[in-house]
Amino acid sequence: MSAHAASGHTAVGHAKAGRFAVTLDEYTHNVSADPEERIVVHVDMDCFYASCERRREPELRGEPVVVGMGYEEGETIGAVATASYEARADGVESAQAISTALDRLPRKATNPDDPNAGYYRPVDMEFYQDVSADVKEILHDLGDTVREVSIDEAYLDITERTEWSVAEGFARHVKQRIAREVGVPASVGVAPNMSTAKIASDHDKPDGLTVVPPDEVRDFLAPLDVERLHGVGPVRARDLRGEGVETIGDLAETPVHEVVSWFGDRGRELHERANGRDARPVEPRGKPKSLSRESAFSEATDDYDEIRERVEALAAAVADRASRKGALYRTIGIKVVTPPYDVNTRANSLPGPVDEPDLVHEVTDELLREFEGDDVRKVGVRVSNLSFSEADQSKLGTWAGESSDPPRVRPRETETDPEGQANLGDFE
Ligand code: DCP
Ligand code: MG
């Protein structure tokens, strides 16, 4: 984390202590924005999966927590997805073999009397996706534009909403809203561009808040280990050290043609970033092609009522997610995994795009009937053939007299869509 970030750059606005309670309006000065003077926020959740586990199991707060696979008695293969900062202090980290993690941090469940043992929890993507969706909703509320990068990371452009003198308060507001409304901690960086904002959010983790105004960018970056730059991994860092380049400042001062001779065109980009320049605008990501949810039973079951209930819950969750994203769907499908690992997908297409939770329920329920009596390990629900235009317009507000509701097409009957079936294999 920020363990090897250099200290001593007093110019940087650090801000962990809560100085004042704020409302967003206090920070919403509609200043005209110089495109050269953007204000970019990067949000990265702290030990995200572990924080999600702590939200539903508050006893885990302050304890070493490892989220991963393969730690149960008799299992040997698996990896750590993430570890809480307490567990990191014992040497546990993301992507580590679970056996190494267990060596460094024994499991509380099997060593109840060991005061240094930690809590292991299995990965529950569905839950983390839910928590992530709640965080993203807040971010979309707070940013002019938002680029979602991963389940726990996003950039916000807030140029139109604030100004540098109050950027720190804005960033604190972002953290507080996520903490209060979702119950998970985030680290936030603010800078004039994406590359520097990302380094800033990582600078003071966990629960970090680092603001780097435009005239402090170079002083902030200069003392940091060159590996802090996005795009410089361990291999490039080793090469750079071989050339005497240890810090971002060293790289910034290296003539650009030399960096290009080492890394080609990518070198030019790294040199720019080392100098605190990054002209990329914060652009939203492309729209998803489908939305899906799936859920596994603890062991295979042929209890059809239980299977139906699970599919019904997934259908409701997927329909809700589609509505929240303003997505209309034309194809509704299910996935049914039967032992040993046979993946069966079925889908029906509708005559037109809809936003109809009841239909998602009805169609999935009908498709599921084929599997009545079968042993089932896992079920999934997916909507695809998405369209967004109508919903986007309704979100932007409509002219007086126009309906803001998306069109609701109710098909008389559904028909099987072979293309939909073929596409259904890659559930999230
Ligand atoms: N993740 C994973 N496997 C990895 C890395 C990450 O499954 N090798 C998952 C678990 C993390 C989540 O992605 O919780 C987010 O990744 P981050 O790199 O942001 O790591 P964390 O949020 O866990 O920790 P940090 O506080 O360093 O951001
Ligand atoms: Mg994170």
Give structural notes.
The protein is α+β, with helices and mostly antiparallel strands and 428 residues long. The chain folds into three domains: 185 residues, 2-Layer Sandwich (Alpha-Beta Plaits), CATH 3.30.70.270; 66 residues, MutS, DNA mismatch repair protein, domain I (3-Layer(aba) Sandwich); 134 residues, DNA polymerase, Y-family, little finger domain (Dna Ligase, domain 1, 2-Layer Sandwich), CATH 3.30.1490.100. A hairpin with a 2-residue loop joins strand 6 and strand 7. Helix 4 runs antiparallel to helix 5 and helix 10 crosses helix 11. It starts with 12 loop residues before the first strand and ends in a 5-residue tail after the last helix. The site of magnesium ion has 4 residues, from strand 2.
What is Rg? 25 Å
Count, helices:
15
From the spread of the alpha carbons, the general shape counts as: globular
SSE ordering: EEHEEHHEHEEHEHEHHHHHEHEEHEHEH
* CATH architectural designation of the largest domain: 2-Layer Sandwich
Give the name of the CATH superfamily of the largest domain: Reverse transcriptase/Diguanylate cyclase domain
CATH class of the largest domain: Alpha Beta
CATH topology of the largest domain: Alpha-Beta Plaits
